[in-house]
Give the backbone structure.
Amino acid sequence: MKTLFRTFGLAAVIGISGLVAEVTPLAPAPSMAAAQTGEPTTLNQLLDRVREGRRIERQENQARLEEFRRARNEQQALLNKVIADVAAEEALADQLNLVQEENRKRIAELDKDLNARAGAFKELFGQVRQAATDMRGQLEASMVSAEYPGRTQLLERLASVRGLPTTQQLEEFWFIYQQEMTEQGKVSRFTAPVSLPNGKTQDQEVVRVGPFTAVSDGKYLAYKNESQTGFQQLALLQRQPSSSLMSAAGRLMKAEPGEIADIPVDPSRGQLLSLLIEFPTLFERIDQGKEIGYVTIVIGLLGALLALWRILVLTGISAAVSSQARNPDKPRKGNPLGRVLLVANEHAGADTETLELKMDEAILKELPKLEFGLNTMKVVTAAAPLLGLLGTVTGMITVFQTITLFGTGDPKLMAGGISQALVTTVIGLCVAIPMLLLASIASGRSKSLSQVLEEQAAGIVASRSAGGR
């Protein structure tokens, strides 16, 4: 059966091939368009085209496969190199760990040997480091460093060194100690950069009194030390102390070598002087009283001028009245007593009652002139403390408003209101007390003159009455 199928299949294939062979010659001729585009026109051409396409595809696939294999080989080579490098680094790390361990053991042995050799000196060197640290802080705040800058560098090295200091370092440390002690007892004159209030720096001649006081050009200096920024320099005080201290600074600058000059010494090395210049001046105190303080002062000045003027006027009138009292027979119009005597002379023939009335009238005319301004003085004397009380109340209101807004955490915020309250009270009292004295003097002068006029008038009336009898 199988032989039959095979024979039949072969005959069928031969038949089909013959049919194709027979049909092929009868096929029509290829068209001109197919010939021009290169498209296959027969089955053989189509088969060749397919065969060629498969060959090209196999070549491309083979090229891709070769490229993939090449990249895989390169990546494997890189991976092998990285693995080798990691292994080498691990080996190096192990080697370094061994070296570090050996060095640690060697350092421990050397430290042990050092401790054994140092013995009692180890404690001494610790004291040196501690003393260097303390001395560095002292030198940074010492005014002597303005004349000898850069002395703290050695001390910084000694304070931070872990090993043993050298003999040269110890000698330099001893020299710095000795220099500081010596310079603290000297008055030295040198040239140094001085920081001015405008921010500029200028080289000036400086006279230093130990570590306490320094002056330049008749003005006091402060030694500024800012350890954080390393700024160490003499600086001119923005506000100088009182004139007496300034004159002492001027005398010190002009003093010759060997000459004795008085100069204030600040044992706190500038702290007391800086606090002293922070005290407000008289005008700054007055300004703290604000508007009420100024109003009180103006009223007080006007009242004082009025009182002084009236005292001078009454003094002149008193002198004229005294002169007239020594010459009652020659009355003059230039004084109150003379005018009263002239009225008595004009009514020499009148009876006693009429003369007394005329004399009283003349005295009453003179009293307003003598008492002029006394009421105004009394008003100023009474108003000044009231204005001070008003300023006190206003200042306390400001204090309570500040407490309401900011609380009581910072006393400086309340200082303005408290200053106003106290300063206005002081100003009111300073105005009222002198005005009270001046008003009393003026009132006493006025009453004395009035009493003289009344005594003279009573005497004239009494003499006329006795003569009429």
